[in-house]
Amino acid sequence: MIVEYIRYRVPDADGFEDAYRRAVVPLGNSPECLTYELSRCVDEPECYILRIEWTSAEGHLEGFRKSAHFQEFFAEIKPFVSHIEEMRHYEQVITKTEPTLFEWAGGAEALERLTATFYDLVRKDDLVGPLFAGMDPGHPRYVAMWLGEVFGGPAAYTRERGGHTHMVSKHLGKGITEQQRRRWVSLLMDAADEVGLPSDAEFRAAFAGYVEWGTRLALYFSGPNARAPKEEPVPRWGWGVAPPYKP
Ligand code: HEM
Q1: Does ipTM exceed 0.90?
Q2: Where residue 242 falls among pLDDT bands split at 50, 70, 90?
Q3: Does residue 237's CB lie within 6 angstroms of at least one atom of ligand 1?
């Protein structure tokens, strides 16, 4: 991730904010733009700073700049380009840090306890048990590695099992039903209580958010209309709110 700062001094700000209100639509739709913010200086109201987080400098220059999103964006802000005083990329050096969900949960050992207990419950369950009749004995550990990576821990699943595509492909053709998905979620929550994962509201909400999202994807990929999984990095899940779905 890289941050771009664009500093403006706009002597006549008439139309400037409105132009940006329109320009941020294609900007926000660009896959390379993670977030943006336009701020006006309180002490010198003719000064503005536009801060954009890009996936990378290449993502900005090779992706966005060469896309139709840029054409639309630029058409709106063109009258103000001569008022730009600085436009540069910055690398973050120090930021406020929070523990990852992986650390908060208790690390790899806690997640392994969770999945060992969970798959014991799964095996005995009349609704989801049959799906796991031929389960690889390493399965609970692989799922713990997956969860660890998703929650901000080491990229062990990607290294040892082949990452996102491998995980998704394991669900293809399994024909998971909504009732089975619900039971899977419910047993995982039981296991989380049983092994004593942190029970604070913030952690459990983030944990449940991922589990809800992940099981719905597993259901989709197990079904008859699933597209072949794309080569993508393992998703990373944090404390915050998930951004809206982009088709
Ligand atoms: C957040 C939700 C889910 C996660 C994180 C998850 C994780 C995984 C992972 C990592 C694998 C591949 C393990 C390997 O590397 O071999 C896998 C396989 C599998 N998953 Fe899921 N899964 C989820 C949801 C579900 C649901 C809802 C079901 C069914 C109710 C399900 C059924 C299966 C089955 C049957 C396999 C193949 C197991 C085997 O034969 O070894 N999964 N899952």
Answers
A1: yes
A2: low
A3: no
